[in-house]
Input
Amino acid sequence: MPKKAKREKLISRGVRTDGRKPNDLRKIRIDVGPLERADGSAYIEWGNNKILAAVYGPREVHPRHLARPDRAFFRCRYHMAPFSTSERKRPAPSRRERELSKVTRVALEPALLTELYPRTGIDVFIEVLQSDGGTRCAGITAASIALVDAGIPLKDLVVACAAGKIDGKIVLDLNEVEDQEGDADVPVAVMPRTGGISLLQMDGIMSQAEFKEALELALEGCKQVYDLQKEALMKAFIQEEASGEDEAESDGEETNE
Ligand code: ADP
Output
């Protein structure tokens, strides 16, 4: 995206343009299973980002020649709605969207047990409805929840968060203005149980010491987001189980009468 004229300051007396302190995450809300037609889905609001993730599969692969004899064929599509950005986005698929589709696949794939589903396909669709910086991290975080919702066994969840540098200071979870007018951005995806990193990118310039600090801060952010992922899953599945039990109990009451 073309850069606009830089504003005076992105951080002033330790406070960022949206009122956050350097180590603060934006507010995050995760809903499990909002889409009925997908096998699994999740909706995430991460600050002003609004993103849907849908999972289909394991199912027959189209075109058929893509099927693998020994594992599932895993595909991801990251897409930004034309109305999702502050500046006009061309509706045609962009190079950036193709790159982020690949980045998403590579970040999620290590958590999958594709060998369990030979000759099938698993598809992940990420639809960015509203964007405000950090959509790749929010999309990956939502997609891993959608995979769980689809009942696809995973070695681990995948959680992503970025840290970066604005006005020479290392901060957590850059928004769009900070991303575009700041000095650097480091998105990271991690599998929290093993600590394996499946995405590490850097855009901008940092010293080695700053990079280390940013990576540690991003990993700290991932831990916080992981807690929210677990909370959302517990809420969805434990409530479901509890309402199932209630129904069974009330059915029982009826037959006893
Ligand atoms: P990420 O969303 O993962 O941080 P980028 O760093 O490429 O990815 O983009 C930063 C932000 O810039 C996006 O979240 C979005 O708000 C905005 N943006 C990206 N691409 C476009 C585009 N083609 N048109 C308008 N805004 C865009």
